[in-house]
Amino acid sequence: MKTLKHFTKTVILLLSVVLMTSCSTDNDDNDVIITEELTIVELASISPNLSSLVSALQAANGDLVSVLNGPGPFTVLAPTNTAFQTLLDSNPNWNSISDIDPAVLQQVLLNHVISGNVTSTDLSALGSGYAKTNANGAGDEKLSLYFDTSGGVTFNNAASVVQGGADIVAKNGVVHVIDNVIGLPTIATHVTANSNFSALAGTLTTDLVNTLNGSGSFTVFAPNNNAFGNLASVPSGDELVNLLLNHVIDGVVKSSDLVNAAEGYTNTLATGPGMNNLSLYFNTSDGVKFNGLSTVTETDIVATNGIIHAVDEVITLPTIATFATSNSALSTLVDVLVYADTGTPTVPYIATVSDATAGPFTVFAPTNDAFVSLLEDDLMANALTDIDTDTVDAVLLNHIVNANVQSSALTSGTVSTLGGDITVDASAFTLTDANGRVSNIITSLVDIQGINGVVHVIDKVILPAP
Fold this sequence. Notes:
It contains 18 helices and 23 strands. A hairpin with a 2-residue loop joins strand 7 and strand 8 (173-178). By secondary structure, the protein is an alpha+beta fold. A seven-stranded mixed sheet has the order 10-9-15-14-13-12-11. The chain has a four-stranded mixed sheet with strand order 2-1-8-7. A four-stranded antiparallel sheet has the order 3-4-5-6. Helix content is 29%, strand content 24%. The protein has three domains: 7-178, FAS1 domain, CATH 2.30.180.10; 195-318, Roll (FAS1 domain); 328-458, FAS1 domain (Roll). Helix 15 crosses helix 18.
């Protein structure tokens, strides 16, 4: 008699879940079905409770029957007939699987297929996390699938492995039978499915949920529960909406895009003075960090309408001080502001540019190199402290305009700063001070918009009139 290897793993005894088999008293090999000798489609085809899955595979685009008869290996989350009936009942226009758009059906089914062998033991060892399915998501990436084993095995908080339905081994993979069809996830789906985002989910308004369930294309930096716990207080109303929108970028930005760019600025959907979109500074020199305070903890959670990156701190609405302190290229400016604060009488520069309710201001921010050049070439000083604070005050005031002026609103002519007049050449993007010194506005570092004003980075320090 032929030896039956892995008998306990491969003989299906799942009453009404997959199929019933039995062994005859003479141990005839034909009475035992060894699933390891069947492909996933062949296994489903002889399983009464998976007949709807087989019909769906046949009706969908992409010749999925041939795909799942192929070498694989695949992990298939196989919805039961009851699960498919629940899906049909959810839409009054669907009476049978043939009523579902074949292209949509293809993607839904591929959202139940993971490349490779993933056993229940593998999932339990991880506890929870994300896998990639074979369905198409935003940014030409494959959709993410959230799994959680804290109470059984669930996927996207929508489907669970049925009792006895795990680890059915086939020739080209493994099957887990589940109790619901898993829909194609939106950003909102992923936020609500993962309990680590429950605090974020609890703050979402109906309008925001509708947006994150919609057809747009977004990148969301999703604060975890600990991040919300670190907030001194959570705002409400429009302030809360604006705070949440400060975590949303229009378009798909993958982690690889951020790493390849190394650092820079983008805009969120939050708004500041003049309804200008707020800026967001990112730096990847030590992980991926935003505005110098929030670090990515999990990347590239892919949905149909965008992508999520989990972060460990809420990205609060940025001030001018936020951008000065987060970008190391402006660290000398911060030192100058701190030093100026030590003068008598005290001019509270740091407090002012840190105050979200102050201003709005426009700040022309010299780079570190600009200050080095000023000290060495113009003032013949060895250190900032060689200059008296009154002089530093006079210099700083020439970099501040008492209005929020984005680069598109710059016009050629005289502009009054808090310290005196300078001349703007809007076509050449230059500033000329009272001494005839010309500062270039660095075109890649303009319109850095905060909640209390806007920053334009310049390559030379502006000096007051002699």
